[in-house]
Design a protein that fits this description.
Layout lengths: L2 E12 L2 E13 L4 E5 L6 H8 L7 E6 L2 E2 L5 H11 E4 L11 H11 L4 H14 L15 H13 L5 E5 L7 H16 L3 E5 L3 H4 L4 E6 L2 E2 L2
Parallel strand pairs: 3-8, 3-9, 6-7, 7-8
Antiparallel strand pairs: 1-2, 1-4, 4-5, 9-10
Helix pairs in contact: 3-4, 3-5
């Protein structure tokens, strides 16, 4: 089992007591799955994805990833797991503004201690794959929203992660680009990469093999 969540909950403190963004989440994700998370705004979709991706350390319950008890790991070890295994496509890009496109793609590879010459070759191949060779020396602010999203996707995939998490990955892409991205995800999944995506789009959701629906922080029956 790649991911096992048991009674996962996400409280935030308010003046009147804790407010729960997630309640009693029980979820198993097998290696090689393609899971879609759906639900209305405020349902807890992005919160759940952030916890699975080890970006949020403030939650309750049990979380096993690669048979490691994440809930027992200190933040430093959780961060190491993230860098080694997770590729995340953020809704708001999260590109580093003071780095070029090529330098943004290099970052995940440097985390995995890939040698510089090999990193340069991998970045070059990725730029070519996404038709971005001509934009490699540009900064994010010089790109359109759709181009920034493609860079964000390329950065998530460049180090060939075991687990890809995508939060509304097609949100800033036109329909044809969105379909190309989903086809790319399907190929990666067919080759064994586990993918969990959040989307409102029923057509993109259908690329997944299973749909998890959330409502007000609860798993919908």
């Amino acid at each position: 089992m790649l991911i096992k969540l048991r009674n996962l909950e996400k409280p935030i403190a308010t003046k009147t007591g804790p407010l729960y963004l997630l309640r009693q989440i029980h979820l198993d994700v097998e290696e090689g799955e393609f899971l879609t998370i759906m639900g209305p705004s405020g349902a807890g979709k992005s919160t759940l994805l952030s916890i699975i991706g080890l970006y949020d350390n403030s939650w309750e319950g049990e979380y096993h990833l690669f048979e490691q008890a994440v809930h027992r790991l200190p933040p430093k070890q959780r961060a190491a797991l993230n860098k080694r295994h997770v590729g995340f496509v953020f809704q708001q890009f999260h590109l580093l503004e003071d780095l070029t496109v090529a330098e943004n793609l290099d970052i995940p590879l440097s985390y995995r201690e890939v040698k510089k010459a090999e990193r340069q070759a991998i970045v070059a191949d990725t730029l070519d794959r996404f038709n971005m060779v001509g934009k490699k020396d540009l900064f994010p602010s010089q790109l359109s929203g759709g181009q920034q999203q493609l860079v964000a996707v390329a950065r998530a995939l460049v180090a060939k992660p075991t687990l890809i998490l995508a939060d509304e990955p097609t949100g800033n892409l036109h329909t044809d680009q969105g379909r190309e991205l989903m086809e790319l995800f399907k190929k990666l999944n067919d080759a064994g990469t586990t993918i969990i995506q959040v989307t409102h789009n029923e057509a993109w959701a259908a690329y997944g093999r299973r749909i998890l629906r959330l409502r007000d922080g609860w798993m919908a029956k």
